[in-house]
Design goal:
Layout lengths: L7 E3 H10 L17 H13 L11 E3 H13 L1 H20 L7 H16 L6 H13 L6 H9 L1 H16 L11 H13 L6 H9 L2 H4 L9 H4 L30 H9 L2 H4 L5 H12 L8 H13 L14 H10 L2 H8 L6 H8 L1 H18 L9 H29 L1
Helix pairs in contact: 1-3, 2-5, 4-5, 4-6, 7-13, 8-15, 13-15, 16-20, 17-21, 19-21, 20-21
């Protein structure tokens, strides 16, 4: 039986070619090579111009030849709006500098706002400075704490001395070392909850695990050499006392247990929708110091239990199946194995880029890191995880990891195709 091969073209090359046709008008949205910035693709071209959710023919890393002209035409037709977007971005950056604003990445904060302005107003007019000032006020003058306020607080000499004393006290308290493994009864109880939580979560069993501090008990061996490292939560042999810190970069955050106090709070504070509900800066800093010294470096027993449940359920992603049909572990494994790129790595590892092989082999560590970040954020916002929500959290984390890996795979393939 013969196989029909469909002619395809690299998506990245098509986008780059169409982008080049827009000329210098989009230079503020381009890199030094004249190609669209990664954030331009992620924040403007994909969601607002190409819209692959509505046009799945534009979603893959390789575009069928029959759709190539449609893709390039869509970008070309959006040229005037994209040029106006670039002009508005320049105006907002100028006003940002004038106001001495340093919070957040301008591309993350303004790209989509600039596209909205370009759609509504076209090129900036005589009132552009006033419009830009209003946008900046809306973005930056939200209620709630800011990264700048946190940085100022922890670097103030008087406050820093007190906060370091709190860190020393919290981390010098008796810490578990060489503790016995979790009892067989507790392990059986967590397995029993995972067996049915996707469909009929056992609320009484979940509450009993919380009351019995099962999550804290399972954290007892994290101080042993290599345990937290194997979970992907640190790059060190064992967790160490965090620093207060000074700055942070969302693109280059360390693993959860290696983050400074500032880095642990950085992501929530850069999200205008989240920070409005957060505590004031001094309270946030003190609570984070206490949290950093707790089991799993979390404050709530429910959060700790969710991490333990995720740790147990995700074991099947990299090892032989242990969960029965319908269990959380089996469902996560099934979702993972349905991914085409996972099949390819498992069947022909030498035929895929090294970056993708590393992603697939390290999926459990990536999963646990994302799960920790998810429950940590819930704690900051005082959002308790109930027994009915556990499966949605566990499943949502794996979906998020898969989406990130798909994006990285597409970027790698596009770079190789262009090269």
């Amino acid at each position: 039986m013969s196989t029909v091969r469909v002619a395809t073209l690299p998506r990245g090359a098509l986008v780059a070619r169409a982008w080049a046709g827009l000329g210098d008008a989009v230079a503020p949205l381009s890199n030094a090579a004249g190609r669209p910035l990664t954030r331009t693709v992620k924040l403007i071209l994909d969601p607002l111009v190409l819209r692959p959710v509505l046009h799945p023919e534009f979603a893959a890393g390789a575009i069928a030849a029959e759709h190539a002209d449609a893709l390039t035409s869509r970008i070309a037709e959006a040229g005037p709006v994209l040029a106006a977007t670039a002009s508005w971005f320049a105006v907002l950056k100028k006003e940002r500098r004038r106001r001495w604003i340093t919070d957040g990445n301008p591309q993350d904060l303004y790209f989509q706002r600039c596209f909205e302005l370009a759609t509504a107003h076209g090129e900036p007019g005589p009132d552009a400075a006033d419009v830009a000032a209003a946008v900046l006020a809306e973005v930056h003058e939200q209620d709630g704490p800011t990264v700048a306020a946190l940085r100022d607080h922890v670097t103030d000499p008087d406050h820093a001395a007190e906060l370091n004393r709190l860190l020393d006290t919290a981390w010098s308290a008796a810490r578990p070392s060489g503790a016995p493994p979790v009892s067989a009864a507790v392990s059986a109880a967590t397995s029993s909850f995972l067996a049915t939580c996707a469909v009929t979560p056992d609320r009484d069993l979940f509450d009993a695990l919380v009351t019995g501090s099962a999550g804290s008990a399972a954290a007892a061996d994290l101080d042993r050499p290599g345990v937290a490292l194997a979970h992907g939560l640190t790059s060190r042999e064992r967790p160490v006392r965090p620093e207060l810190g000074r700055g942070a970069s969302k693109a280059n955050l360390p693993k959860p247990f290696d983050r400074s106090i500032v880095e642990r709070l950085f992501a929530p504070l850069t999200n205008a929708f989240q920070r409005a509900g957060l505590a004031d800066v001094p309270t946030l800093a003190r609570r984070e110091i206490a949290r950093s010294a707790g089991p799993w470096q979390l404050a709530e027993e429910r959060s700790r239990l969710v991490v333990v449940l995720g740790r147990d359920a995700s074991a099947d992603l990299v090892g032989p199946p242990t969960g029965g049909p319908g269990s959380a572990a089996a469902r996560l494994r099934s979702r993972w194995e349905r991914e085409a790129y996972v099949h390819r790595v498992l069947r022909m590892p030498s035929a895929v880029p090294a970056e993708l092989r590393a992603d697939v082999r390290g999926v459990r560590e990536a999963y646990l890191r994302r799960l920790w970040v998810r429950v940590h954020g819930r704690e900051l916002r005082h959002e308790t995880v109930t027994s009915d929500q556990v499966w949605d959290v566990l499943d949502g984390v794996l979906r998020s990891v898969i989406l990130d890996q798909r994006d990285r795979l597409r970027s790698v393939l596009e770079r190789e195709a262009v090269a």
